[in-house]
Amino acid sequence: MTEGPQNAGIGAVENGLHTAHQLDDDDGAKHDSISVKHIEVTSQDSYGDKLRVEHIHGRRLYLAFLGWLMTEFMGSMGGNMLAPAIPVIASNFNAFGQLGWISGAFYMTQCGSMLLFGQCSELFDAKYVLIVAILFNMLGSAISGGASDVTSLIVGRAVAGIGSAGCYIAVQALVAYLVDLKYRALIFGLFGLQNVIAVTAGPISAGAFSDSGLWRMCFLIVLPLGTVAIILNLIVMPSVPPLPLTEEMEQRLQKQIGGFPSCTRFVKEREWAKRVLLADWLGFILATGSLVCFVLAMQWGGSEYAWSSSHVIGVFVGFVAIGAAFFFVQSVVAWPLIPLRVLRNRTVVGSCVMALSQFMCNLFAATFLSVIYEAGYGYSSLRAGLHVIPYFTVIIGAQLAEGVVLAWTKRYWYWGWTSPMIIAVGGGLLYTINSSTSTARLIGYQVIYGLGIGLTQGIPIVAVQADSKERDIAQALATLAFTQLFGGTCGPVIGSAVLDEHLRANLKERDVPASTIAEVISSVNIIKTL
């Protein structure tokens, strides 16, 4: 996954790891202090040694880093950098009511794909996993950039989400495999600098493209970046041999396919077939299918169909049933996307709930602040982009400050309940705004809200590392990121459903003709004229 406010949550995994390594042992209570012995997440640090991969240095490292940086930036372009442009893009297709789908489709497939790409980065050569992910991102961006209707746009966003997940995971794996340990903190720090640049320049660029009628460039700009990144990956980076299959893995795989004798014989003779079957493809399909049902329910409810209609109830039932099937599959496959044992740890469960809620709140604001400025205040996309920059930048600043405070106090537990309170206060203030609220006050409210988002960002990551067994840390962090992205899917979709339902109801109360209501629902430009 990518950097940016989108990744201020997801990409905070690295920040959490580095913050955790800085913390000293303490004699405090178990949940109040962080013990280094519980936090030394060295699985990535030891990958290169286990595989005996030669680290790259000098010019090769510089060129590889340039390719990784372009890859990270590509993912940022698909995330919140597009926020100011999305209302205009939706209106171009007379599909303002599909705003939640246009934004949420990206995170929906990203959520399901991230865990699968995590497996693939260990099962196959991470160099080529990254190239495949970049190609997915480019394909999705090309579909979105050339879309002639909103359905094509949403499909493109979904495909790009798959690629974005793979880009994020593969880049992190390659840094761990190919970069000497003493340089990794610098590499991740420079990724953070790219994050700052992206959240500052991204909304402005997206707004400028939209105002100029060139909104398709928001997607098509990914194509040259991806091309250069692939060339650099092919030329500069060595192949990274996948992790060797353990005897336990082979035994579990044998048990899984034992009922198919011909398949068993074929797999025994071919290691690549073992690796393909070890990846949890069924889990990925079920996870994504469950998310699609949830998004459909939230998108249809109250707008296209009544909440009590068979359509909405049916997809809600599908969401629960497919979700239950997903967790059953996780209990029986050879290598599950989410090992169920990590969910027996209440700290992991609580951290997942916090991460889901936090990222949902983040995406509420990231998506709909631009709508407020464009529809409520009549601003252009460029001007809206300028006004949401304070929200994005305060998140990054709060994250950095939180890392310093955690390193100094060696306490994380108290932040777990105080930081969300700041989000609640900021959200309450944002709830009070109306068309007469000054932009200065609105910016102040979004800064308070963003402060809470940023201070909450790294707490679940540090908590999971502090209270998990060493062998479970990687899986626990992956589970945390999965639930976080589920929150990212929920935020825009739920927000769009609420906006659509209330907009219809309020317009009906004012005796607005049905034809005008339909026009308002389809375009942010019509809302500006009311």
From TrEMBL:
Its main location: membrane. SUPFAM superfamilies: MFS general substrate transporter (SSF103473). Pfam families: MFS_1. Residues 60-530 form the Major facilitator superfamily (MFS) profile domain. Keywords: Membrane, Transmembrane, Transmembrane helix. The keyword Nucleotide-binding does not apply. It is a multi-pass membrane protein. GO terms for molecular function: transmembrane transporter activity. PANTHER family: AZOLE RESISTANCE PROTEIN 1-RELATED, MAJOR FACILITATOR SUPERFAMILY. This is Major facilitator superfamily (MFS) profile domain-containing protein. It comes from Penicillium cataractarum.
